[in-house]
Specification:
The complex is a heterodimer.
Chain A: H1 6-45, H2 48-82, H3 84-93, H4 95-116, H5 125-154, E1 160-162, E2 165-167, H6 171-175, H7 180-208, H8 214-248, H9 250-257, E3 263-264, E4 268-270, E5 273-274, E6 280-281, E7 284-286, H10 289-295, E8 301-302, H11 318-344, H12 353-379, E9 384-386, E10 390-391, H13 392-395, H14 402-429, H15 433-440, H16 442-450
Antiparallel strand pairs in A: 1-2, 3-8, 4-7, 5-6, 9-10
Chain B: H1 3-37, H2 41-73, H3 75-84, H4 86-108, H5 114-137, E1 143-146, E2 149-152, H6 154-159, H7 161-188, H8 192-223, H9 225-233, H10 235-254, H11 258-280, E3 283-285, E4 289-290, H12 291-294, H13 298-326, H14 330-333
Antiparallel strand pairs in B: 1-2, 3-4
The complex binds CIS-heme D hydroxychlorin gamma-spirolactone and protoporphyrin IX containing FE (2 copies).
The site of one protoporphyrin IX containing FE (HEM) has 27 residues of chain A, from helix 7, helix 8, helix 11 and helix 12.
């Protein structure tokens, strides 16, 4: 069932690199915004707790960004090495956003360097905060540009094929294809959500470990509040993505929903399994909910898999990826809402152990949702690499040795993964926030004690 | 100017930019390790990390810019290179990944380790060696096109004198460029101890650089005579390069104008690199792809040129800001900030 030919190996290596890169890329897009918010609150409220928060987040962030940069360089080169025919077409039609992305990288890298090394260089702290804005924008722009490329793969347009040649190319039309708006929105909102979720998880973990200081409580309130906002945005963006799919790429939605027959008032199927006759068993059915998700009308018509030739249908297991992603989205929304309600009630204690553990779990779960989401988005496009134009098999390299390279990269990512974890643990273990607060802001801690 | 000429000029300028900034970085890694082994690390390593820390990411983007730009302006070249360079390209990726991340681990992660430093030094020499493969195969003779596609002739590559002379040239140039820059930086930082050491490195690595250039010329005449003849037509460009080389060595030796000396080094490589590039044309990949056949369609060409100009408006002021903060801010360089 599973043949390790060049195509399969290339797919495995691509998924490996992207699956690894997206962890760091998501943090690279989302965390600068939270750092910027924290530094701004520190300046506005004249509260060094927030400033220190920004400083410490930045210190962990820079290490993760380094891995993001090197794995990004890897995927950038690997796309040409593993999918040369695809990149030949991509170069002709969709290279504009790829090219623009490098400028976003330049912009971000330059200001990140400046931001890192100038904490105490300005007389007015607000000038240092200004340096964070280009970092936030640069990171957001790189996500935007790369996501337009991925959108193009799903709904290609802006060119014509005549006698095997690409003619009448319109770069902007290709870039702003039908998938672009919802995808960009969803990718950005989930990057911010996930980054907030991870920072909140770390903070909650510290509080459970009895580091129950004002610094940590403020950090938790800030991050969980952000989770709530971005989880709402993510739900909206996800809903729009589903409506986009129903309209432009119905086979992808149908695969995720195990929606075999075109019908009105379609049920939404949660989890379950398929028996030999492709019938759904043990699933939770939400009556007419799929029609609502797809069209905004409980009786709307949803196209099923019966409308597509069998060899153009993606693997049915992506159903689980989709369900898990959505489930985690609602989990984030629920947990953050719960925390905010408990915090509002004077009588209740929002730093209760159970609630904190729920927040801790939310961090890794959000990152998993990113992975599930991308696996769904990418596998759900199968067999196409460029939907309707080029299949994955046509795009792959023919050179030998892909298998060896796969092994090489598994080794590389293992080393990098272990390295990141070790270094981050060392960095914060011997340097708790309280003592750092005292070192950097002695006047403030002294005042705090008088109170 | 046609799109293909604009495209190749832009790419070649950025590749040249990468050659300079990355050489500084790669060479510095080797010197840092070498100084550690010879117990002189206290003299120069602080100087090195002070310059490199804020800029290493920017260095990396120069490289990314080049290969993304190549896909954009010359998609066919990207196809041939992609098909053939899987193994050397992957090795280069792994080395770059190890180097970048371990640099960050050591530098921001406050962990000093000899292994990190060794990896940092060794990769600094291996990366230029593996990247130079791309230039080597562009001379032709290392690629075979069959019905199944394009393949690299690894055996030919590993036994060719030309390919080894390029590797040798790449490595010694890296050390020479880096030492020349560090002399300038040490001079600015008023760090006499470091200056004496890196100045010695610069003078030491100058002669292998010129020898390697000569052997590469000779190997080229054996490997691709057409290209060699076109290079000979541009003899004055390479002559200029030698002139800048002598000027640079004189200035470093004399020990007053290290800034000018480094500028002379930059011109030495600028002339040589553009002389090589200009004589390489019309081929991008001999004999498969020429400039005019391999270029992207007009619509995309125009879009990329506009994007490039717009990007420069963003990039140049930001780069100036960065250089003023970390390269020309005397207090920072001296370690007072
Ligand atoms: C620039 C375009 C692009 C972008 C933004 C992404 N991908 Fe993708 N992905 C590809 C371009 C691509 C590709 C090169 O075109 C592949 C190879 C096979 C295929 O269908 O598309 C692919 C395949 C592919 C596969 C294998 C699918 C299969 O089994 O057939 C996975 C699991 C992912 N990707 C995962 C990701 C992740 C985790 C991403 C988040 C960063 C991501 N993709 C973004
Ligand atoms: C095919 C997919 C992708 C390619 C080719 C790619 C390419 C790259 C490259 C080349 C870098 C290194 C940049 C540098 O040297 O500074 C990088 C880093 C990064 N990528 Fe990706 N990327 C991909 C997917 C993504 C996705 C999906 C996102 C976001 C949603 C993303 C966001 C980032 C970020 C934030 C960085 C760090 C940039 C920096 O800090 O300089 N990437 N990527
Ligand atoms: C709240 C409910 C959610 C819904 C209804 C939803 C819906 C969707 C849909 C329909 C897609 C496919 C879009 C496409 O391929 O064109 C998608 C993809 C994706 N999802 Fe979600 N999602 C939700 C929550 C989340 C969460 C919580 C995360 C991560 C924190 C996440 C991360 C992703 C990612 C990274 C992708 C791939 C990007 C893309 O292709 O658009 N999603 N989602």
């Amino acid at each position: 069932m599973f043949e390790l030919d060049n195509v399969m190996l290339s797919r495995l290596l691509t998924s490996l690199t992207l699956g690894f890169h997206i962890i760091f890329a998501t943090i690279g897009v989302g965390v600068p915004l939270l750092i910027s918010i924290a530094e701004f609150m520190g300046i506005k409220k004249k509260d060094p707790n927030y400033t220190l928060l920004a400083r410490r987040w930045t210190r962990g962030f820079i290490i993760l960004v380094a891995v993001g940069v090197v794995t990004g360089t890897a995927i950038g080169l690997q796309l040409s090495l593993l999918w040369p025919s695809f990149m030949q077409v991509a170069g002709n039609v969709i290279s504009l956003p790829l090219f623009l992305e490098t400028f976003a990288f330049f912009f971000e890298a330059i200001f990140l360097g400046a931001y890192l090394y100038t904490w105490d260089r300005f007389k007015k702290p607000i000038y240092h905060w200004f340096l964070s804005i280009p970092v936030v924008i640069g990171a957001g722009m790189s996500a935007f540009f790369i996501t337009t490329v991925n959108s193009f793969m799903n709904t290609p347009q802006g060119f014509e094929v005549k006698d095997g040649a690409l003619v009448n190319v319109q770069p902007l039309v290709a870039m702003f294809n039908p998938a672009t708006p919802t995808k960009v929105f969803h990718v950005l909102s989930t990057a911010y959500l996930t980054s907030a979720a991870i920072l909140a998880a770390i903070t909650a973990f510290y509080i459970i470990r009895k580091r129950n200081t004002e610094y940590h409580k403020k950090a938790l309130k800030l991050t969980v509040g952000s989770i709530f906002i971005f989880a709402l945005l993510t739900a909206v963006a996800g809903d729009l993505s589903a409506k986009f799919l129903a309209h432009e790429q119905p086979e992808k939605l149908a695969v995720a929903e195990w929606h075999f027959e075109t019908e009105e008032g379609a049920d939404l199927i949660l989890f379950g399994r398929l028996n030999e006759d492709n019938e759904v068993e043990n699933a939770l059915r939400l009556p007419k909910a799929l029609s609502f998700l797809a069209t905004g009308d409980f009786n709307g018509e949803v196209v099923g898999l019966d409308q597509f030739p069998e060899d153009e249908i993606a693997p049915l297991w992506v159903h689980y990826m989709f369900d898990l992603m959505v489930l985690i989205g609602f989990y984030s929304l629920g947990v953050s809402l719960l925390y905010l309600i408990v915090a509002k009630m004077k009588k209740w204690n929002e730093n209760n152990k159970w609630l904190l553990w729920l927040i801790v779990f939310n961090g890794p779960l959000a990152m998993l949702a990113i992975e599930f989401g991308w696996i769904y988005a990418e596998v759900g496009r199968q067999p196409w690499i460029l939907r309707g134009y080029m299949t994955v098999a046509e795009g792959a390299t023919t050179s030998p040795n892909v298998g060896w390279m796969l092994l090489l990269f598994i080794l590389l990512y293992t080393v990098l993964g272990i390295g990141v974890v070790t270094v981050l643990r060392k960095l914060f273990k011997n340097n708790p926030a309280e003592s750092e607060l005292e070192r950097h802001y002695p006047e403030f801690t002294a005042k705090g004690e008088e109170r | 100017m046609t799109y293909e000429l604009i495209g190749i000029t832009v790419l070649w300028i950025f590749l040249y930019g990468y050659l300079i900034v990355a050489s500084i970085d790669f060479g510095a890694g080797f010197f840092a390790y070498y100084a550690k082994v010879t117990k002189r690390d206290h003299v120069i390593n602080r100087l090195i990390s002070r310059y490199l820390s804020p800029v290493w990411e920017v260095t990396n983007v120069f490289f990314v810019f080049f290969f993304v730009g190549l896909v954009g302006f010359f998609p066919d070249a990207a196809y041939y290179y992609g098909q053939t360079l899987l193994v050397p390209g992957s090795i280069a990726i792994v080395l770059i990944a190890i180097r970048g991340s371990f640099y960050a681990f050591e530098n921001y992660g406050s962990k000093q380790s000899n292994i990190y430093l060794f990896l940092y030094g060794a990769t600094g020499l291996l990366i230029p060696a593996s990247l130079s493969t791309a230039l080597t195969i562009s001379e032709g003779g290392f690629i075979e096109e069959t019905a199944e596609g394009v393949h690299l002739l690894t055996g030919e590559l590993l036994t060719s004198p030309y390919s080894w002379s390029v590797v040798f040239l790449a490595i010694v140039s890296v050390l020479y460029i880096s030492a020349a820059f560090l002399s300038f930086y040490a001079h600015r930082a008023d760090d006499q101890g470091a200056l004496n050491l890196v100045k010695k490195y610069a003078l030491f690595w100058s002669s292998p650089t010129i020898i390697a250039s000569l052997t590469t010329f000779i190997a080229m005449s054996q490997h691709n005579e057409d290209h060699f003849n076109r290079m000979m037509e541009l003899w004055w460009v390479f002559g200029l390069s030698v002139g800048f080389f002598m000027l640079a060595i004189f200035l470093i030796y004399q020990g007053k104008y290290y800034g000018w000396a480094f500028i002379a080094v930059m011109f030495q490589f600028f002339t040589a690199f553009f002389g090589y590039g200009a004589s390489h044309l019309p081929y991008l990949l001999y004999p498969y792809i020429t400039l005019s056949e391999g270029v992207v369609n007009d619509a995309m060409g125009l879009a990329l040129v506009i994007a490039f100009i717009a990007g420069l408006f963003l990039l140049i002021p930001s780069l100036i800001l960065l250089m003023r903060m970390f390269l020309f801010d005397a207090d920072y360089v001296k370690g007072k900030k």
